[in-house]
Each structure stands twice: as C-alpha cells, then as structure tokens.
Amino acid sequence: MSKFPEDLRVYEHLLWASRADVVVELGTQFGGSALWFRDRLRALEQYGRIRRGKVISIDIDLAAAREALSTADPDHGASIMLVEGDVRDPTLPTKVRDLVPAASRCLVVEDSAHTYETTWAALEGFAWLVPYKGYFVVEDGCVDVEEMRLSESWPRGVLPALKAWLATSEGSDFTVRRDLERYGLSCHPHGFLQRTAPASRGQGFIAKSREQDREMADGPAPNSGVALPCNSALPRTPEPSVLIDPDQALLRQAEHRAEAAEQRAKTAEQRAKAAEQRAKAAEDQMMDMRSQLLRLGDELFDERRYIAELDARLADAEGVVVRLHEELNVAQQLQDSSLWQLFQRARRRFYGALGGRESPLGRLVERSIRVLTRSALRKLK
Predict the structure, then answer these.
(1) What angle do CA 355, 369, 356 make, to 5 degrees?
(2) Dihedral angle at the C-alpha atoms of 157, 160, 161, 165, nearest 10 degrees?
(3) 129-172: per-residue pLDDT in tens?
(4) Closest-CA residue to 76 (of 35, 27, 15, 33)
(5) What are the CA-CA distances from residue 139 to residues 122, 226, 373 (Å)?
(6) Is residue 11 helix, strand or coil?
(7) Residue 232 has pLDDT above 50, yes or no
(8) CB 122 within 8 A of CB 92
(9) Domain closes at, from 236, 265, 282
(10) Range of the domain at 294
(11) Out of 218-232, 266-280, 346-360, which region has the weakest mean confidence (pLDDT)?
C-alpha cells in the first residue's frame, strides 16, 4: 500500500466523522488499501458507528489484486467487491451505483492514473455518490507540485483538473478542506473535498435518514486507529472541531501560523546572513592583526639586532675610555713630577726669549714640543 501514514490517519477521522459505510476506491493496484479500508470499516462496526461496511474497488486490471487479496484474506469477497473497468468509461458510474446498497453513505477515493483526463472523469462520474457532509478524496495531487515530484516519469494534471471541476456547478457543492492536511505533510494537497451543499442527483445515496444526518457529528472519535473490544467502554470525548467546522476557522489560523512561521524563517535567514558577514569581518580583522604581529616581530628582531650593534659599539667605547683614563693617569703622573715642573719653567723662559708663544717662532716650537711629548708618552706606556 503506497500511502503516507499521515493521510491514513486523516482517513480514519473522515470515516468516523462522516459515518461512511461504503468506500468506493478508484484504483486498486494490489488491493492493499482496499483491505485497509475494509479493516477500518470493521472497526466502525464494532464501535456502532455503522451497521455493515463494504469496499468497492475499481481498476482496469485486477489480476494482481485478486491474487494478493486471496492470499491475505481468502474470505475478502464478503466485504470487498472488485470491479474491472476504466474510470473514463461513461457507463461505469451506473454499474457502480447498482452495487451500492440503498441509503448508503459513500466515501469516494480517486487513486487511478493521476492525469487530467482520469481525474476529471472520476470527479464528474462519481462525486454524486458523496452524501451531504461526506467526502471525496482526490489522491496524489503531489504530482503537480514540483518540490514533491520524485521522478520526471510521474504523470501530471491532477490539480488542474480538480481546479477546473470545482469551478463547475456540481463542483461548487464541494469545499476544499486544506485543514485536513493536518499532520504537516500530505500526498494529497487540495484533495480533501467535503460536500457542503445537497447533491442534485442520486438522492438515495445521500443519507440513511434525517436523524442520522443530525447525529453525524455526534459521538467520540478514537484517539488512534486501534479498534477496542466490543465490550469496552468508549470514551465520550467530542469529535475534533477541525472535522465539523465548515467555516474553516482553523484553516485560517493554520494559514496565519504558516505565514508567521515563514516570516520567522526569513528573519532567521537574515540574522544568519548578518552573523556570517560579522564572522567574515572578524576573520578579516584577525588576518590584519596577524599581519601586524608579523610586522612587529620583524621590527622587534631589527631592534634587537640594532641594540646588539650598539652594545658592541658601547663595549668598544668603554675600551677607548679605559685607555684614555690610563693615558690621563700617565699624563697626571708626569705633570706632578719635579722634572715636569722644571720643564714648564724652562719653557716659559724659552718662549719669552722667542717673543711669546703666539709669535711665529713660538708656534713652531709649540708644535715641535707636542710631537716630542706624544713620543715620550708612548715610550712611558
């Protein structure tokens, strides 16, 4: 059976709320969904919602379905009727009508070829079987939603055919119940249709009685699809308002919530982009700081090398100073000696005889004395 679990749960709500006792399934394939609908109807029988359930399943080739159903339930023929036919055959609806017990309430499920032609034929030929407040489900409109298409080989045309049929006078008796896509994901977008106006033909199939129409929304719906024993006490909780609220207030609330969620998603996306920009700016800033640190490291290395050169020069200067101190000490020792003092008096007299130290002859003698003095100092060292 190829159906979403979320959509199967919705079917359980629809069967309970509408008290459908006949499921007309257009498209049998291997018979898995026909067997599933039969089991759900049996559960409704145990709850007392219906008297006797029946499934009428239609397909152009039923060989595989007959084999699979016979394997799963050899007695399936008592509650599942297989009809071989093409949904596009205009005589098929009349044949099916003759198989539906009088005063039955039908749920029609369109699950045939999912093309425009077959979808239109199913709606045009079988919608009149649906009673007031009953449901017609057009399955697999996802084939026309690009985000949900898994293969290009899938057919197209379900949603265009549905939209065109709803614009007809017969289609105007139905309301699209988007609120029934209630579990977050559905393979049948826009496909849950409820008759909200009496049918113009097939009145014998609309309802069992006026009293049952009044009681249709009464009684509790189980919280799960598991059938309780017949002698179990049934809970008396009201049916969820989403299934009996024709003005679709919850649908509008859901749309508002979806819009708010979309706005929050956009805001989150904008914040994410802003955070990404801030992260990039921080990364660029870190790269700049790294470059600056590398430059500072190079400058520090140059400074250390320059300091080392200064230290070497300072050591050389200290050596020169030491040598100068030594020479100064030697000169001081020489100046303090008596021989030096005699020399100074003799020099003054000598300069006086030459006409003074500033005279040309005195300057010449002064230079000569300096040369001799340096020579003597070198010898003392």
Answers:
(1) 10
(2) 170
(3) 999 999 999 999 999 999 989 899 999 999 999 999 999 999 99
(4) 35
(5) 11, 24, 126
(6) helix
(7) no
(8) no
(9) 236
(10) 248-334
(11) 218-232
Give the residues across from 195 on adjacent strands.
Answer: 174
CA atoms of 81 and 53, how far apart (whole Å): 11
Q: How many residues does the chain have?
A: 381
Residues 207-239: b if buried by 16+ CB within 10 A, e if exposed = bbeeeebeebbebebbeebebeeeeeeeeeeeb
Instruction: Return all residues near 126 (Cβ < 8 A) that are at least 6 apart.
Output: 24, 26, 93, 96, 108, 110, 136
- Same domain? 252 vs 345: no
Distance CA 321, CA 269 (A): 76
Q: Where are the alpha helices (DSSP H) in 52-205?
A: 63-72, 92-99, 116-126, 158-166
- State the amino acid at position 232 in one-letter form: S
Same domain flag for 349 and 277 = no
> Which amino acid is present at 67?
E
- Verify that 327 and 227 share a domain, yes or no: no
The sign of the torsion formed by the CA atoms of 192, 194, 199, 204 equals positive
DSSP code of residue 235: P
Note the Cα 74 to chain centre separation in Å: 47
Q: Indicate the pairing of strand 135-138 with strand 192-195.
A: antiparallel
CB-based contact 69:31 (threshold 8 Å)? yes
> Would you say residue 195 lies in a domain?
yes
